[in-house]
User: Which sequence fits this backbone?
Protein backbone atom coordinates (compact mmCIF):
# COMPACT_ATOMS: atom_id res chain seq x y z
CA UNK A 1 0.00 0.00 0.00
CA UNK A 2 1.40 3.39 -0.96
CA UNK A 3 0.71 6.64 0.83
CA UNK A 4 -0.05 9.67 -1.29
CA UNK A 5 -0.55 13.16 0.05
CA UNK A 6 -3.77 14.71 -1.27
CA UNK A 7 -3.25 17.55 -3.72
CA UNK A 8 -4.95 20.15 -1.52
CA UNK A 9 -2.56 19.32 1.33
CA UNK A 10 0.43 19.52 -0.99
CA UNK A 11 -0.61 23.05 -1.91
CA UNK A 12 -1.17 23.88 1.75
CA UNK A 13 2.05 22.47 3.21
CA UNK A 14 4.61 22.90 0.45
CA UNK A 15 7.47 24.96 1.87
CA UNK A 16 8.29 27.78 -0.53
CA UNK A 17 11.71 29.38 -0.64
CA UNK A 18 12.03 33.12 0.00
CA UNK A 19 13.44 34.50 -3.28
CA UNK A 20 15.14 37.55 -1.75
CA UNK A 21 18.07 35.66 -0.15
CA UNK A 22 20.73 33.28 -1.50
CA UNK A 23 20.17 30.56 1.12
CA UNK A 24 17.23 28.37 1.98
CA UNK A 25 14.69 30.37 3.96
CA UNK A 26 11.04 29.36 4.24
CA UNK A 27 8.81 32.03 2.78
CA UNK A 28 6.24 33.55 5.11
CA UNK A 29 3.12 32.37 3.32
CA UNK A 30 0.70 34.63 5.16
CA UNK A 31 2.24 37.94 4.22
CA UNK A 32 4.71 40.45 5.64
CA UNK A 33 5.66 40.33 9.30
CA UNK A 34 4.30 42.77 11.84
CA UNK A 35 1.05 43.34 9.97
CA UNK A 36 -2.26 42.84 11.73
CA UNK A 37 -3.90 39.57 10.73
CA UNK A 38 -7.24 41.40 10.49
CA UNK A 39 -8.52 42.20 7.03
CA UNK A 40 -6.84 45.50 6.18
CA UNK A 41 -9.14 46.23 3.25
CA UNK A 42 -12.20 46.31 5.49
CA UNK A 43 -12.54 49.92 6.65
CA UNK A 44 -14.80 48.99 9.57
CA UNK A 45 -12.30 46.49 10.96
CA UNK A 46 -9.35 48.77 10.22
CA UNK A 47 -10.99 51.58 12.19
CA UNK A 48 -11.00 49.37 15.29
CA UNK A 49 -7.26 48.71 15.12
CA UNK A 50 -4.94 50.71 17.37
CA UNK A 51 -3.22 53.23 15.13
CA UNK A 52 0.14 51.76 16.13
CA UNK A 53 -0.74 48.68 14.08
CA UNK A 54 -2.20 50.35 11.02
CA UNK A 55 -0.16 50.63 7.81
CA UNK A 56 1.29 53.96 6.74
CA UNK A 57 2.00 55.06 3.18
CA UNK A 58 5.18 57.14 3.29
CA UNK A 59 5.83 57.43 -0.44
CA UNK A 60 4.32 56.16 -3.66
CA UNK A 61 6.77 53.24 -3.47
CA UNK A 62 6.86 52.70 0.28
CA UNK A 63 4.20 51.55 2.73
CA UNK A 64 5.03 50.15 6.16
CA UNK A 65 3.00 47.44 7.90
CA UNK A 66 2.86 49.14 11.30
CA UNK A 67 4.02 52.43 12.82
CA UNK A 68 6.91 50.98 14.88
CA UNK A 69 10.50 51.47 13.73
CA UNK A 70 13.98 50.56 14.91
CA UNK A 71 15.91 53.74 15.55
CA UNK A 72 19.48 54.04 14.18
CA UNK A 73 22.00 53.03 16.86
CA UNK A 74 25.75 52.82 16.30
CA UNK A 75 27.16 49.42 17.23
CA UNK A 76 30.88 50.25 16.72
CA UNK A 77 31.51 46.89 15.09
CA UNK A 78 32.62 47.71 11.55
CA UNK A 79 36.03 46.61 10.29
CA UNK A 80 38.67 49.23 11.07
CA UNK A 81 41.70 47.89 9.21
CA UNK A 82 43.23 48.75 5.85
CA UNK A 83 41.08 48.64 2.75
CA UNK A 84 38.21 47.10 4.72
CA UNK A 85 37.64 50.17 6.91
CA UNK A 86 33.98 50.89 7.43
CA UNK A 87 32.78 47.54 6.10
CA UNK A 88 29.89 45.66 7.68
CA UNK A 89 30.60 42.21 9.11
CA UNK A 90 28.59 39.10 9.92
CA UNK A 91 27.70 40.79 13.20
CA UNK A 92 25.62 43.37 11.36
CA UNK A 93 23.77 40.68 9.41
CA UNK A 94 22.89 38.87 12.65
CA UNK A 95 22.08 42.08 14.54
CA UNK A 96 19.70 43.54 11.97
CA UNK A 97 18.37 40.14 10.97
CA UNK A 98 17.15 39.67 14.53
CA UNK A 99 15.07 42.83 14.24
CA UNK A 100 13.83 42.01 10.73
CA UNK A 101 12.50 38.60 11.76
CA UNK A 102 10.30 40.23 14.43
CA UNK A 103 8.36 42.51 12.09
CA UNK A 104 8.92 46.20 12.79
CA UNK A 105 7.37 48.53 10.25
CA UNK A 106 10.80 49.84 9.35
CA UNK A 107 14.44 49.66 10.37
CA UNK A 108 16.97 52.48 10.10
CA UNK A 109 20.49 51.06 9.94
CA UNK A 110 23.08 52.90 12.02
CA UNK A 111 25.00 55.91 10.73
CA UNK A 112 27.28 55.15 7.79
CA UNK A 113 29.82 57.82 6.97
CA UNK A 114 29.94 59.32 3.51
CA UNK A 115 33.73 59.84 3.69
CA UNK A 116 36.48 58.02 5.63
CA UNK A 117 37.22 60.86 8.06
CA UNK A 118 33.54 61.47 8.79
CA UNK A 119 33.13 58.43 11.04
CA UNK A 120 32.36 58.95 14.71
CA UNK A 121 34.92 56.26 15.51
CA UNK A 122 37.20 53.96 13.51
CA UNK A 123 34.64 51.20 14.10
CA UNK A 124 31.75 53.03 12.41
CA UNK A 125 30.16 51.88 9.18
CA UNK A 126 31.02 53.62 5.94
CA UNK A 127 29.28 53.92 2.60
CA UNK A 128 31.89 55.92 0.70
CA UNK A 129 32.71 53.05 -1.67
CA UNK A 130 30.89 50.33 -3.58
CA UNK A 131 32.41 47.43 -1.62
CA UNK A 132 30.91 48.77 1.61
CA UNK A 133 27.52 49.15 -0.04
CA UNK A 134 27.65 45.60 -1.38
CA UNK A 135 28.32 44.17 2.07
CA UNK A 136 25.15 45.87 3.33
CA UNK A 137 23.03 44.13 0.68
CA UNK A 138 22.52 40.85 2.64
CA UNK A 139 21.05 42.89 5.52
CA UNK A 140 18.59 44.51 3.12
CA UNK A 141 17.74 41.29 1.32
CA UNK A 142 16.90 39.49 4.55
CA UNK A 143 14.69 42.36 5.74
CA UNK A 144 12.84 42.26 2.43
CA UNK A 145 12.37 38.50 2.73
CA UNK A 146 10.40 39.25 5.91
CA UNK A 147 8.35 42.02 4.32
CA UNK A 148 10.14 44.68 6.38
CA UNK A 149 11.20 48.06 4.96
CA UNK A 150 14.74 49.15 5.70
CA UNK A 151 16.79 52.31 5.24
CA UNK A 152 20.19 53.57 6.28
CA UNK A 153 21.33 56.75 7.98
CA UNK A 154 24.05 58.57 6.02
CA UNK A 155 26.25 60.85 8.04
CA UNK A 156 29.37 62.89 8.64
CA UNK A 157 30.34 63.35 12.28
CA UNK A 158 32.16 66.63 11.74
CA UNK A 159 33.99 67.80 14.85
CA UNK A 160 32.80 64.71 16.74
CA UNK A 161 34.63 62.38 14.35
CA UNK A 162 37.67 60.25 15.23
CA UNK A 163 36.34 59.46 18.69
CA UNK A 164 36.82 56.40 20.82
CA UNK A 165 34.02 53.86 20.44
CA UNK A 166 31.32 54.75 22.96
CA UNK A 167 31.29 51.27 24.60
CA UNK A 168 34.57 52.34 26.20
CA UNK A 169 32.53 54.96 28.11
CA UNK A 170 34.68 57.86 27.01
CA UNK A 171 33.90 60.75 24.72
CA UNK A 172 37.36 61.58 23.46
CA UNK A 173 39.14 62.10 20.19
CA UNK A 174 41.81 59.56 19.31
CA UNK A 175 44.96 59.64 17.20
CA UNK A 176 46.33 57.41 14.46
CA UNK A 177 47.90 55.20 17.14
CA UNK A 178 44.35 53.93 17.75
CA UNK A 179 43.29 54.03 14.09
CA UNK A 180 41.90 57.56 14.55
CA UNK A 181 42.80 60.79 12.74
CA UNK A 182 42.56 63.55 15.36
CA UNK A 183 46.31 64.14 15.02
CA UNK A 184 46.16 64.60 11.26
CA UNK A 185 46.11 67.90 9.40
CA UNK A 186 45.12 68.46 5.82
CA UNK A 187 42.44 66.53 3.91
CA UNK A 188 42.49 63.47 6.19
CA UNK A 189 41.89 65.36 9.43
CA UNK A 190 38.82 66.51 11.38
CA UNK A 191 36.63 69.13 9.70
CA UNK A 192 33.68 71.32 10.71
CA UNK A 193 32.04 74.56 9.57
CA UNK A 194 34.27 76.53 11.95
CA UNK A 195 37.36 75.84 14.09
CA UNK A 196 35.32 75.45 17.29
CA UNK A 197 35.96 72.30 19.34
CA UNK A 198 33.14 70.15 20.72
CA UNK A 199 34.20 70.87 24.31
CA UNK A 200 36.63 73.03 26.28
CA UNK A 201 38.46 70.16 27.96
CA UNK A 202 40.67 69.21 25.01
CA UNK A 203 38.87 65.88 24.74
CA UNK A 204 38.25 66.56 21.05
CA UNK A 205 40.61 68.31 18.67
CA UNK A 206 39.86 71.79 17.33
CA UNK A 207 38.56 71.03 13.81
CA UNK A 208 39.75 72.55 10.59
CA UNK A 209 37.29 74.85 8.83
CA UNK A 210 35.86 73.51 5.58
CA UNK A 211 36.82 75.92 2.78
CA UNK A 212 33.84 77.33 0.91
CA UNK A 213 35.22 75.90 -2.32
CA UNK A 214 35.04 72.36 -0.88
CA UNK A 215 31.52 72.38 0.54
CA UNK A 216 30.05 71.12 -2.73
CA UNK A 217 32.33 68.07 -2.41
CA UNK A 218 30.65 67.20 0.89
CA UNK A 219 27.22 67.67 -0.64
CA UNK A 220 28.19 65.37 -3.50
CA UNK A 221 29.52 62.77 -1.04
CA UNK A 222 26.07 62.53 0.54
CA UNK A 223 24.48 62.18 -2.88
CA UNK A 224 26.93 59.47 -3.94
CA UNK A 225 26.31 57.58 -0.69
CA UNK A 226 22.54 57.68 -1.26
CA UNK A 227 22.99 56.39 -4.80
CA UNK A 228 25.06 53.44 -3.53
CA UNK A 229 22.46 52.75 -0.86
CA UNK A 230 19.75 52.47 -3.52
CA UNK A 231 21.57 51.00 -6.51
CA UNK A 232 23.94 48.57 -4.77
CA UNK A 233 22.56 47.83 -1.30
CA UNK A 234 18.88 48.03 -2.28
CA UNK A 235 17.70 50.14 0.68
CA UNK A 236 14.17 51.51 0.61
CA UNK A 237 15.12 54.96 1.89
CA UNK A 238 17.98 56.96 3.35
CA UNK A 239 17.98 59.18 6.41
CA UNK A 240 20.21 62.26 6.41
CA UNK A 241 21.80 62.68 9.85
CA UNK A 242 21.34 66.33 10.79
CA UNK A 243 21.33 65.91 14.59
CA UNK A 244 23.49 65.47 17.70
CA UNK A 245 26.32 67.84 16.88
CA UNK A 246 27.37 66.02 13.69
CA UNK A 247 28.49 68.03 10.66
CA UNK A 248 25.09 69.15 9.38
CA UNK A 249 23.94 69.98 12.90
CA UNK A 250 26.97 72.22 13.46
CA UNK A 251 26.16 74.15 10.28
CA UNK A 252 22.63 74.76 11.56
CA UNK A 253 23.65 76.08 14.98
CA UNK A 254 25.19 79.49 15.59
CA UNK A 255 26.95 77.93 18.57
CA UNK A 256 29.25 76.04 16.24
CA UNK A 257 28.88 77.93 12.94
CA UNK A 258 30.92 81.14 12.91
CA UNK A 259 31.27 81.41 9.14
CA UNK A 260 30.94 84.70 7.26
CA UNK A 261 30.24 83.21 3.81
CA UNK A 262 26.91 82.05 2.32
CA UNK A 263 26.86 79.08 4.73
CA UNK A 264 26.99 81.10 7.95
CA UNK A 265 25.39 84.01 9.72
CA UNK A 266 21.68 84.23 8.92
CA UNK A 267 19.18 81.39 9.44
CA UNK A 268 18.81 81.00 5.68
CA UNK A 269 22.57 80.70 5.26
CA UNK A 270 23.00 78.18 8.08
CA UNK A 271 20.34 75.83 6.68
CA UNK A 272 21.75 76.06 3.14
CA UNK A 273 24.14 73.10 3.57
CA UNK A 274 21.34 70.78 4.71
CA UNK A 275 18.99 71.87 1.94
CA UNK A 276 21.67 71.36 -0.71
CA UNK A 277 22.30 67.85 0.64
CA UNK A 278 18.56 67.08 0.54
CA UNK A 279 18.38 68.22 -3.08
CA UNK A 280 21.41 66.06 -3.93
CA UNK A 281 20.06 62.98 -2.12
CA UNK A 282 16.42 63.28 -3.15
CA UNK A 283 15.16 60.44 -5.33
CA UNK A 284 11.91 60.20 -7.25
CA UNK A 285 11.68 56.50 -6.41
CA UNK A 286 12.54 56.64 -2.70
CA UNK A 287 11.46 58.73 0.29
CA UNK A 288 13.95 60.95 2.11
CA UNK A 289 14.16 61.04 5.91
CA UNK A 290 15.98 63.72 7.92
CA UNK A 291 17.01 63.32 11.57
CA UNK A 292 17.18 66.57 13.49
CA UNK A 293 17.92 67.69 17.01
CA UNK A 294 14.67 69.59 17.55
CA UNK A 295 16.28 71.48 20.42
CA UNK A 296 19.94 71.49 21.46
CA UNK A 297 19.02 71.60 25.17
CA UNK A 298 21.32 74.54 25.81
CA UNK A 299 18.96 77.17 27.26
CA UNK A 300 21.83 79.26 28.64
CA UNK A 301 23.33 79.63 25.17
CA UNK A 302 21.37 82.24 23.20
CA UNK A 303 23.02 81.04 19.96
CA UNK A 304 21.93 77.42 20.32
CA UNK A 305 19.38 75.80 18.01
CA UNK A 306 15.92 75.73 19.61
CA UNK A 307 12.53 74.21 18.85
CA UNK A 308 11.41 77.46 17.25
CA UNK A 309 14.23 77.08 14.71
CA UNK A 310 13.13 73.50 13.95
CA UNK A 311 9.55 74.63 13.38
CA UNK A 312 10.82 77.28 10.97
CA UNK A 313 13.06 74.74 9.22
CA UNK A 314 10.20 72.27 8.81
CA UNK A 315 8.59 74.51 6.18
CA UNK A 316 11.79 74.37 4.12
CA UNK A 317 11.93 70.58 4.46
CA UNK A 318 8.41 70.36 3.07
CA UNK A 319 9.36 72.60 0.15
CA UNK A 320 12.40 70.44 -0.61
CA UNK A 321 10.39 67.23 -0.69
CA UNK A 322 11.36 65.52 2.57
CA UNK A 323 8.84 62.83 3.53
CA UNK A 324 9.82 62.07 7.15
CA UNK A 325 11.32 64.26 9.87
CA UNK A 326 12.84 62.14 12.66
CA UNK A 327 13.13 64.21 15.83
CA UNK A 328 15.68 63.80 18.60
CA UNK A 329 17.44 66.45 20.71
CA UNK A 330 20.75 67.60 22.18
CA UNK A 331 24.33 66.79 21.25
CA UNK A 332 25.69 70.17 20.16
CA UNK A 333 28.42 70.45 22.80
CA UNK A 334 29.57 69.17 26.16
CA UNK A 335 27.81 72.02 28.01
CA UNK A 336 24.33 71.05 26.87
CA UNK A 337 21.91 69.80 29.51
CA UNK A 338 21.57 66.11 30.18
CA UNK A 339 18.41 64.77 28.58
CA UNK A 340 15.42 64.22 30.79
CA UNK A 341 14.43 60.60 30.94
CA UNK A 342 10.70 60.54 31.61
CA UNK A 343 8.75 58.38 29.17
CA UNK A 344 8.40 60.02 25.78
CA UNK A 345 10.39 63.06 26.84
CA UNK A 346 10.90 64.13 23.21
CA UNK A 347 7.31 63.78 22.04
CA UNK A 348 6.76 67.44 22.97
CA UNK A 349 8.96 68.39 20.02
CA UNK A 350 7.10 66.06 17.67
CA UNK A 351 3.79 67.61 18.72
CA UNK A 352 5.07 71.17 18.26
CA UNK A 353 6.21 70.51 14.70
CA UNK A 354 3.26 68.26 13.80
CA UNK A 355 0.84 70.97 14.92
CA UNK A 356 2.66 73.35 12.58
CA UNK A 357 3.08 71.22 9.43
CA UNK A 358 0.02 68.99 9.70
CA UNK A 359 -0.15 66.38 6.95
CA UNK A 360 2.53 68.03 4.81
CA UNK A 361 5.32 66.15 6.63
CA UNK A 362 5.38 62.85 8.50
CA UNK A 363 6.91 63.06 11.96
CA UNK A 364 8.83 60.29 13.73
CA UNK A 365 9.45 60.54 17.47
CA UNK A 366 11.93 58.68 19.66
CA UNK A 367 13.09 58.68 23.27
CA UNK A 368 12.22 56.28 26.07
CA UNK A 369 8.88 55.18 24.68
CA UNK A 370 8.38 52.01 26.70
CA UNK A 371 4.69 51.13 26.67
CA UNK A 372 2.37 50.28 23.81
CA UNK A 373 -0.50 52.37 25.17
CA UNK A 374 1.73 55.42 25.48
CA UNK A 375 3.05 54.91 21.94
CA UNK A 376 -0.44 54.44 20.53
CA UNK A 377 -1.76 57.51 22.35
CA UNK A 378 0.95 59.65 20.75
CA UNK A 379 -0.30 58.53 17.34
CA UNK A 380 -4.02 58.72 18.16
CA UNK A 381 -3.50 62.29 19.39
CA UNK A 382 -1.80 63.15 16.07
CA UNK A 383 1.37 64.20 17.88
CA UNK A 384 3.45 62.03 15.53
CA UNK A 385 3.07 59.49 12.73
CA UNK A 386 5.83 56.96 13.52
CA UNK A 387 7.21 55.64 16.81
CA UNK A 388 10.92 54.82 16.83
CA UNK A 389 12.57 52.80 19.58
CA UNK A 390 16.23 52.14 20.23
CA UNK A 391 17.13 50.68 23.62
CA UNK A 392 13.74 48.95 23.97
CA UNK A 393 14.57 46.91 20.84
CA UNK A 394 18.04 46.07 22.17
CA UNK A 395 16.47 44.79 25.36
CA UNK A 396 13.59 43.05 23.61
CA UNK A 397 13.96 42.36 19.86
CA UNK A 398 10.36 41.05 20.01
CA UNK A 399 9.09 44.49 21.03
CA UNK A 400 6.54 44.59 18.19
CA UNK A 401 4.95 41.35 19.41
CA UNK A 402 5.00 42.54 23.03
CA UNK A 403 3.25 45.77 22.10
CA UNK A 404 0.74 43.88 19.96
CA UNK A 405 -0.08 41.64 22.93
CA UNK A 406 -0.42 44.69 25.18
CA UNK A 407 -2.98 46.21 22.80
CA UNK A 408 -4.78 42.95 22.04
CA UNK A 409 -3.71 42.78 18.39
CA UNK A 410 -2.65 39.62 16.61
CA UNK A 411 0.11 40.23 14.07
CA UNK A 412 1.76 38.10 11.43
CA UNK A 413 4.82 36.35 12.90
CA UNK A 414 7.66 34.57 11.13
CA UNK A 415 6.66 30.99 10.45
CA UNK A 416 9.68 29.79 12.46
CA UNK A 417 8.28 31.52 15.56
CA UNK A 418 4.53 31.56 15.05
CA UNK A 419 3.60 27.90 15.60
CA UNK A 420 4.33 27.75 19.38
CA UNK A 421 2.04 30.74 19.94
CA UNK A 422 -0.66 29.85 17.43
CA UNK A 423 -0.55 26.06 16.91
CA UNK A 424 -2.28 24.77 13.78
CA UNK A 425 -5.43 22.65 14.14
CA UNK A 426 -4.89 18.90 14.32
CA UNK A 427 -7.67 18.21 11.84
CA UNK A 428 -6.06 18.72 8.44
CA UNK A 429 -8.98 17.63 6.23
Assistant:
Amino acid sequence: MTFETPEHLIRRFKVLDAPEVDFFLPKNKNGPLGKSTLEQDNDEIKAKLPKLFTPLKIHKNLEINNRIGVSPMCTYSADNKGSKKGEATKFHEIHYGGFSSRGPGLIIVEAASVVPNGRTSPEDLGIWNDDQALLLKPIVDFAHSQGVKIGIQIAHAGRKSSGVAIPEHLQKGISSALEGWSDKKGPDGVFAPSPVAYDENNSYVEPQEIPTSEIKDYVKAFGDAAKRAYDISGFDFVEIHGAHGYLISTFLSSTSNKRSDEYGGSFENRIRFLLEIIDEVKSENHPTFVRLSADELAPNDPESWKIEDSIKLSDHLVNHGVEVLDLSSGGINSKAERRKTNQGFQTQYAKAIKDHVGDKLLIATVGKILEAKFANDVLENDDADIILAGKPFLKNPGLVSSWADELGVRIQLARQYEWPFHPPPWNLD
In short: The chain has a mean pLDDT of 91. DSSP finds 14 helices and 13 strands in the chain.
